[in-house]
Specification:
single chain, 367 residues, alpha/beta, 8-stranded mixed β-sheet, 3-stranded mixed β-sheet, 13 helices, 11 strands, 16% strand, globular, disordered N terminus
Length: 367
Amino acid sequence: MDGATGRRTVPQSRERIARMFEIQAAGCAAYGAGLYGLLLRRAADDIRAGGPCAEAVAGHEDAPGPDAVALRLAGAVHALVLSGRAPELAGYYPSAGGAWSPEVAEECWSAFRATVAAELPWVRSWMTRPPQTNEVGRSNLLIAGLLYAVTAAPLPVRLFELGSSAGLNLRPEQHRYTAGGFAWGPVDSPVRLADGWTGGAPGWLVEAAAAHPKLDVVERRGCDLTPIDPLSEAGALALRAYVWPDQSDRLDRLAGALRLAADHPARVEPTGAGDFLAGIDLRPGTLTVLWHSVMQQYVPAEEWARVEAELDRLAAASTPGAAFAHIAFEPERVGGRFPFRLSVRVGSGVRVRLAEASGHGIPATPS
């Protein structure tokens, strides 16, 4: 208690994490996720007040921003909803058949807070895992980068990914992409990425798609420190739990990607990015592609230095008959902004920036 004002003081570490929740709430609201915009703001207040949410995040107060503690808590509660352990809260979660609107904000928050309090040990256990959305919408950008690369090096593709999570974006040629006169991929795909480009797809992409109506992917592998098995019940629950519950398009894409995972195997190795890349060499008669999306921020600086050294090694070894391409969809600093940008480097050539998009990959805008 502050003796001068009579107000309760909030410990500095608790105030810090409450502020992180508010920043995440604003980000969710900006992406159209009004449900989390509300719940995470109210959770911030509950943390300051020492309520159940403060108990849930205890021990995480000094976690760095990339640990995304707010999303860990939101994902833990969403998992309870999806698994039938929070029936009252489920009535407000569209992902579980409920209905959300600002008019039921107080009732929804009350049910959320009560769920955290009732399931505190389970929530705290869940929060030890990192958030892994494995956002399938990002393949909208990644496939564009891949078509750009195969136009420069028209060879069968070996596809490798850093930070793969469940490896759902290792099957990009199995998705259907459409945008204003542009269409590519199997017409019967369970993953449909519609309206992928603002104002229609750029000319270079239309031409590349026409030249390569199909891609021959002869190998697909990824790495992740904590890979998720998309074919397991627990793995599928974790993936669904980290999708924001009022974003039905993302949930539909994930459901389709989980169906594809059963039919098109992809191996995700439990290893770091540097070690994974050190084991990759170019192969004659193929285009070796290394890509990653919205994961670099989670990698320590010294580990990323190893990644860059390995990328330079592969780029220097690239030839027309045994080619290499590096595709990245990552945030980049532009003044005071951090737009998410698609960039491609083929061989030892110049890195080309091709597009910008939201962090979820749709819609994209040509650079």
